[in-house]
Amino acid sequence: MPDKLSYKIQFGDTYGVVNPAMLHAHLTLLRKFKMLEQSDKCFDARYLLRAQERYVLWLDLLRTQNFDQEVVPIPPLVPVNFIELLNNFYSLIKYEIWESNGSHIDPASERIWTEKTKQPWVLNPNDSSDFKITCPWCKSNIHMQWEKYVKLMQTSDANENCPICYAQHSIETLSAKRFIDDISAWNKDKSKLIGGTLIDRKDGSYSEELSIRRSQLLFTANIIDVLTNCDRYEWVHITEQLNLQIKNVKEEIIQRVISAYSGIPLPFSIDLVSAVHRQRRFTEKIVKNKWIDRLEVQENSITRYLKFLSLIKEKSNIFLVPTFDIDLCWHTHQLHASFYRSFTKKHIGRIINHDDTSPKELLLINFEATAQAWNKKYHEPYALYPHGEEPCGGESCQENCQNCQQCRQDCDVEACYCD
Fold first, then answer.
1. According to the per-residue pLDDT averaged within each range, which of 54-68, 151-165, 236-250 is highest?
2. Position 142 confidence tier, pLDDT thresholds 50, 70, 90
3. Which of 115, 133, 111 is nearest to 49 (CA)?
4. Is 48 exposed, middle or buried (0-12, 13-18, 19+ CB in 10 A)?
5. Each residue of 382-400: b (16+ CB within 10 Å) or e?
6. Residues 190-220: pLDDT tens digits?
7. What is the model's pLDDT at position 68?
8. Per-residue pLDDT reduced to its tens digit, 363-403
9. What is the pLDDT of residue 186?
10. What's the pLDDT band for 133 if we cut at 50, 70, 90?
11. From CA 385, how far away is CA 296, in angstroms rounded?
C-alpha cells in the first residue's frame, strides 16, 4: 500500500499550507469564531450583519489602497472573513499569526484598519446603533433602526421605504436593483464582471475572459433596455425577460447568474450570513473534538486527505463526503486560495468545490458510498474516531462494535449534530 511519501510525490507537497502547525492555527481560529456566536438569535443576526458590513469595508480597503502582497493587512476578526477567500480578493498570507501567538494580534493591520475606516478593530456585539445604508435609487445615506434592518435582511416579505425617495426596500427589490445596476454598468464598461459568469463549470477555473464572453451573449442592448427602463424590481419579471429575450444561451448559465444576485442585496455572489450559519456546523463539531488537535492525529489526517484527493480524482462521478479529520485538512487547504486553486487544477484536473449546501440525507447516502470506495481502494476503514473523543477501540472495534457502526452512520458525517 502506498505510504505518506508516495502520496506527497503523487500530488506534490501540500506541507507548506497543510501541516500540523497550520491545522492547529486553524483550530485556534475556529475556537475564536465559536466564542463570537451570540446566544440570542436576534443579537446574533445583528452581529453577523455588522460583521458583513465590515467585510465589505475591508474589501474596499484592499481595492483602493493597492497594498503590496507582502503587506496586505489581515481583516478584523469577524465570522464572515473567511467565507469568500476562494475568490480573487485575498489569500491568508498572515495566517501564521494564529500559530505564533494564538490570537488575532497584528498591530500594523489594526492601525491601517482604524485609520482608513474609522471603525474599531474589535466589533462590539452589544452595539445597538442604527445601521447606515445607501438607497440604490436616490443614493441618499439613510439610518435604519437595527431591529428593522435585521428583519429586512432576514425576512423575505419584510420591506421598508426610503424616507427620501420612497422606493421600497426589500431583499427582492434591493437584489434586483443591484443586478440591473450591474448590467447597466457593464454596458458602459465591458471589463466589469457579472456575478455567476466567472466560473468554468468544466474544471471550476476562474476566467475573466469567459465572463466577458458570457456577458456579451446574455446582455444584449435589447435586454438592457427592457430591464433598465422598467420599474419592476421583481425576480419573476427579470427571469421572464431574460428567457424571452435571450436565445441560444444555455438555461444553466442564466440560472447561475440569477442565483448570484437573487436575494443577495450586498455585492457578493453568495449569501454570506447563510454561509456562516452553514460553516458553524463544521466549526461546532471540530472544536468540541479534543483528539483532532493531537499531533499524531493531524499527521495521519494529512495522509488521509491526500488519499481523499486521489479518490476524488479517480471517482469523479461520485459526490465524496469527508470525515472530520479530512475535512479539517480540506478547509485549511482552501484558506490558501491561490495555492488551492492551482494545486487542485494541476493534480485533480479541475478546481474542487467544497459544497456545503447539500442536505443531510444526501450526505449520509454519499458518505456510505465514499466509505465503500475508500475501503475498496485502500483496504482500511474510512471513519476514524467518530464520536468526538477517544476511539472506543481499534480497527476490529470499528468493524464489530455496534456503537461504532452507529457512529459511522451518524457522527462522522458533516451534517451530524451528535453530542
1. 151-165
2. very high
3. 133
4. buried
5. bbbbbbbeebeeeeeebee
6. 888 999 998 887 777 878 888 998 898 889 8
7. 74
8. 999 999 999 999 999 999 998 654 333 343 333 344 344 44
9. 94
10. very high
11. 13
Show the cell assigned to 156.
Answer: 423575505
What lies within 8 Å, CB to CB, of 329 at 6+ separation is 18, 23, 301, 302, 304, 305
Radius of gyration of the chain measured on its C-alpha atoms? 23
Q: What is the predicted pLDDT for the residue at 281?
A: 86
Instruction: Report pLDDT for 306.
Output: 92
User: Confidence class of residue 337 from pLDDT cuts 50, 70 and 90?
Assistant: confident
| Distance separating alpha carbons of residues 243 and 239, to the nearest angstrom | 6
Cell 435582511, residue located: 153
Q: Are 44 and 38 in contact (CB under 8 A)?
A: yes
- Identify which of 400, 302, 319, 391 has the alpha carbon closest to the alpha carbon of residue 358: 319
3-state percent helix, strand, coil for the chain, nearest multiple of 5: 55, 5, 40
Indicate the domain borders of the chain.
4-14+289-410, 20-128, 139-259
Alpha helices in 160-259 (DSSP H): 171-188, 208-218, 221-228, 235-245, 251-259
Separation of CA 132 from chain center: 25
Type of residue numbered 34? K
Total residues found in the chain within this entry: 419
Cβ(321)–Cβ(414) under 8 Å?
yes
Strands (DSSP E) along 53-155, which ranges?
131-134, 141-144
3-state DSSP call for residue 256? Answer: helix
Dist. CA 328–CA 334, nearest whole Å: 10
Q: Is the dihedral of CA 320, 321, 323, 327 positive or negative?
A: positive
Place of cell 463526503: 321
